[in-house]
Amino acid sequence: LIDLASVENGCQCVAYSDAHYGHPRNLLNPGRGVNMGDGWETARRLDRPPILIANESGVLQVPTQEWAVLRLGHSGLLHKVEIDTCHFKGNFPDSIQVDGCYIPAGEEQQTEDIGTNESHWMTILPPQK
Prior knowledge:
Elements: E1 12-16, E2 68-71, E3 96-100, E4 122-128
Antiparallel strand pairs: 1-2, 3-4
């Protein structure tokens, strides 16, 4: 297996919703982080609803979410997705969703709305606790 989402293999963070306590490019570092500072911690949401409701899978239903767009260094066939929240005790995300799209090299600048244009994306990992 090759880690296509590693900075060592050319992956880059090209867009994100929040870099308050840590930059999402920290997600691309090889190996496990040694402390919480090696991860991506976002600011507390001020628009969080006063009453939280979960769906049938236990995923909280909130109006907004934090996100990061990563450009993989190479194309590849996905075999495994690993989400590591090792040092996030009590402040880890409620859930994760992974989406992907293919944009040929050189066409990124022509697609300025790639982070928000849902027609380009397909779900790889639906929302999970």
